[in-house]
Amino acid sequence: MTYKDIFISIAVMNDLSPTRLPLATSQMVIALKAAAEPTRLRILLLLTSGELNVKDLTQILGQSQPRLSRHLKLLVEAGLIERIREGSWVYFHLSDRTANGRLASVLLAMADLNDPIVIRDRERAEHLKRDREAIAQLYFERHASDWDQIRSLHVAEAEVEAAMSEALGPAPIEFLVDLGTGTGRTLELLAERYQRAVGIDINQAMLAYARSKIDNAGLRNAQVRHGDIYNLALMPDEADVVVMHQILHYLSDPQRALDEAARILRPGGRLLIVDFAPHELEFLRDHAHERLGIGTDTMTNWLADSGLKPVTTRHLPPSPQHGDKTDNLTVSLWLAEKSEAA
Which of 22, 194, 265, 320 could cross-link 176 (Cys pair, CB 3.0–4.6 Å)? Predict the structure, then answer.
């Protein structure tokens, strides 16, 4: 995807026609002043291709951290970009929630992408992202054998993903939240469905891998965030769809996590859970599995206690390749809905 493609997709996604920008004159002045400086304009152009932190920007732009921090502070205060803390790091991205952020996308669409400085910045950013992706990929490869071993015990991932898509149906999704996003695969799978999405995970290395994947896939309307599944930094009634894909069996308190998922769902919003049915594979406890699967009765009770109503349940038995073995894993999908009266 070229930078021009990125700008066009941003414009289409946010409906950036002049008549749809309810900007007061004072807001426009603030935004234009903030953008009207060479370094700040270069920062904005860089952020069109994905999130970056201060360390990234110092390496790309060759400027000191204090100086860049001041520029970033002005851009945040003007509403052009947003800052998100991820552990000890702070990432920045173009705001897609403010009128000034949308105005920035319009301005950037008029930039000359053949300017030598812009080309050099872009090349440095792409080199930096390749290095970051290589580090994340190394982590993933070191742990891939664990996931491969578990995947070999159940139905093919393609069948699970097809069932997920079918459960959610074809309707567009305004805001999707993927809890325990891992590699960010769910964000890729449902990319054509949502207008905006965020994947949340507590593992920094997995987040780095997920971020590199969504960057390479050109998913400019998706982001990943470091966060606690028991205490989400999201507003109540904010999400249209929440996905929890193979996450509950790792948790010591699934009910608490479901309560948080229900809290951020809007009335009428849906929660899709994918997990293992009850099994007796004790060795999976060595892979940090707190629970050996989850029964439908248990799930139904948990959902009810969180104020959610079960809509559909589906079970995917192990693939035929497993022969007559009965000790393999069945994958279960539960779709629940938050009451309109909640």
Answer: 194
Pairing verdict, β 265-276 and 89-94: unpaired
Burial 148-161 (b: 16+ CB within 10 A, else e): eebeebbbeeeebb
CA dihedral (267, 268, 273, 278) positive or negative: positive
Q: Are 239 and 266 in contact (CB under 8 A)?
A: yes
pTM strictly above 0.90 = no
Report the distance separating Cα 50 and Cα 128, nearest Å: 12
Q: What is the DSSP string of 201-252?
A: ES-HHHHHHHHHHHHHTT-TTEEEEE-BTTB-SS-TT-EEEEEEES-GGG-S
Q: Which two tokens mark 192?
A: 């054509």
3-class secondary structure, 91? strand
Question: Which amino acid is located at 4 in the chain?
Answer: K
Q: What is the pLDDT of residue 152?
A: 67
Of 128, 66, 54, which Cα lies nearest the Cα of 91?
54
pLDDT at 6: 43
Q: Which residues have CB under 8 Å from 339's CB, separation 6+?
A: 267, 307, 308, 309
Distance between CA atoms of residues 5 and 131, nearest Å: 24
Six token digits for residue 147: 């996931």
pLDDT at 287: 74
Q: Report the C-alpha gap between 240 and 234 in whole angstroms.
A: 13
Instruction: Give whole-number Cα distances, 198 to 175, 243, 279, 336, 341, in Å.
Output: 8, 11, 31, 20, 26
Give the chain's end-to-end CA distance (angstroms, integer).
42
Whole-number pLDDT of residue 292: 84
Q: Which mean pLDDT values do the consecutive 10-residue runs of the chain (342 residues) have?
A: 45 45 76 91 89 89 92 93 75 82 84 90 85 64 63 82 95 96 93 95 84 86 91 94 93 89 97 93 78 89 93 87 62 94 66
Other Cβ atoms within 10 Å of 138 Cβ, number: 11
What integer pLDDT is reported at residue 51 of this predicted model? 79
